[in-house]
HAD family hydrolase (Streptomyces bobili), 218 residues
Amino acid sequence: MERAAVFDVDGTLVDTNHLHVVTWWEAFRQAGHHVPMHAVHRAIGLGSTDLIAHVLGEDRDGDQDSALSAAHKALYGQYFDRLPAFADAGALLRRLHGDGRRVVLATSASGAELSALRRALDADEAITATASADDVEEGKPAPEPVEHALELAGVPAERAVFVGDTVWDMRAGRRAGVRCVALLCGGIARADLEEAGAQAVYADPAALLTGLEDSPLA
């Protein structure tokens, strides 16, 4: 039976979390909301509406959500031509593909942003499919993004591993019934990732590639 490796992208394979923090912080600032960057960082990995709610609270003026999302998208879009993949991220995907894994990306990105991330990875030949924000009704930490990725891979949960960098990733993977591997390169503490469901934790894609034979992906 086939096996799958499902990957989050931002902060896991491509070094974008802090770009998202700064551009969301600026979008909030432009709208008159002065929020600390660490609060934004803790929300990275959520879809736009959920991120805004996490930072501003459920009692916010929801009519601002679309404008905030649009401002963040415009600010972040300035970096599309120079998004940096983590070292060996593409090599990790190619290795897993070569080992017979179906590699699927599960990301809240879509459209031009997703295209920019895939260009940064430069590993299209290793990617079986992509589950983007356009394909699901609920983003992480709901299990739907991971479940959809499994459908695209044609693999049951027990034959898959999900790799991410946030507590939202780990919770989504756990709820979808897959084993979860966490990477520290997104800036979230090991203890928080383990508490959220990570069964193994590595520094970054290069460390996971080096330790692949002893990892849940073996």
